[in-house]
Design brief:
Blueprint lengths: L1 E6 L8 H12 L3 E6 L6 H10 L4 E4 L4 H7 L2 E2 L1 H6 L4 E4 L5 E4 L2 H11 L8 E5 L3 H11 L5 E5 L3 H11 L5 E3 L11 E4 L22 E4 L8 H8 L4 E4 L1 H16 L6 H11 L3
Parallel strand pairs: 1-2, 1-3, 4-6, 7-8, 7-10, 8-9, 10-11, 11-12
Antiparallel strand pairs: 3-5, 5-6
Helix pairs in contact: 1-9, 5-6, 5-9
2'-monophosphoadenosine-5'-diphosphate (ATR) binds next to helix 6.
Length: about 270
Amino acid sequence: MDRYLVFGHPVRHSKSPFIHTLFARQTQQELEYGLAEPAVDEFAQALRTFFDQGGKGCNVTVPFKEQAFTLVDRLSPRAKRAGAVNTIKLTDDGVLLGDNTDGAGLVADLKSHGVTLADSRILLLGAGGAARGALAPLLAELPSELVIANRTHAKAQQLAAEFCDLGHVTAQTHEQLAGSFDLVINSTSASLQGELPPLAPALIHTDIAIYDMMYGASDTAFISWAKQHGARQTMDGLGMLVEQAAEAFTVWRGIRPGTKQVLRELKRNLGVI
Ligand code: ATR
């Protein structure tokens, strides 16, 4: 049977085996999907061994995405732009192809929630790996403006400069942020520590869409905060997780699984509904 897995550390709580097993059942694909948690300095060897032993493809998550970028034979254009690889496929001619489906997953999830990206004014919080992966797919939707704000402003400036060929993208400090945004995307890892990016409450209004790439059994700190200040449409990263997986599954198997039912099952599994 064709074998796939996700590499990460820690990875025990990954939902990817659950999601891909449901995709396989739904599309009647014969495959198995497992977990691998190599020591941080043993990822390269573990990856080689997996493919030497007949593995067909894998996902890569924290902290290995940047390392995977350097280990594959070929990169997709979107992985090259993201500077990170979250999906690897062994092609029929034996090439390890590195791809990145995170940004496509984000955009697909935003669209599934009915968020309009074209001509919108987007605020992206954070300038780490997650922000970098999201930028090209977001700019491809032709927002009128995309502003990056980050605790360390220099990193936001660097990202804006790197992606300015793809659209109207600027970096602003939190103090500079003004005007009305249609969508705020939190790509920072602040929620992991139960912290908030330092956003002024005045930027939140009833018609704004709020997206946190993090998720949990209950609202993230950022989503709770935005709701308190009047945001009516809030979304967490669970849908993005399922959508990036669907995109990876499509890369591997050439068939696109449906995501709605799988997202529902995942929420049930997490005790969210
Ligand atoms: P990831 O790959 O998840 O993006 P990362 O590359 O380590 O992880 O980036 C983490 C991002 O979250 C950064 O933008 C970081 O801000 P700095 O560049 O200033 O470090 C941001 N971040 C992490 N904790 C934060 C906090 N408590 N408040 C605000 N921003 C935070």
